[in-house]
Design brief:
Layout (H helix, E strand, L loop, with lengths): L7 E5 L2 H13 L4 E7 L11 E7 L5 E7 L8 E5 L3 H14 L3 E8 L6 E7 L5 E7 L9
Parallel strand pairs: 1-4, 5-8
Antiparallel strand pairs: 2-3, 3-4, 6-7, 7-8
Length: about 140
Amino acid sequence: MSATLDHVTIVAEDFEASRAVYDALLGCLGVVPGVEYEDPEGDEDDTGTVAAVGYSDAAGRLLLWLVAGRAGTTGAHLALAVTEPALIQAVHATARDAGIPVVQAPRDWESNQLHYYGTQLSDPAGNRVEVLLRHPAGAEQRP
């Protein structure tokens, strides 16, 4: 039997604030809103309100769902692998310039087990978004 991760769902109490963070951070990586759903209950006071957004990669695969809800996700850690250090630096600069909390500035993780260069950021609920570039075991670290 074989399995792959299909997607991750984050429930946001403050959907608009969370969406602004994910739009900015994921947009740097070419992961953009591919699907939006309005509130299915159709209450008169929130007709047309987006209640869920699915973020897709360049191949059109949905990777992340951000969904409005009263019991938000907290403590999640989403790690996205990239192919260039410049993407990590771009995400970090975007976060810094937009006032998105930076948990860890871009750095090499020197531990023998980790072998990567990355940054960590936080959404409004404290969920972490990490962007990283893996180094092959034994390879030189990023210059």
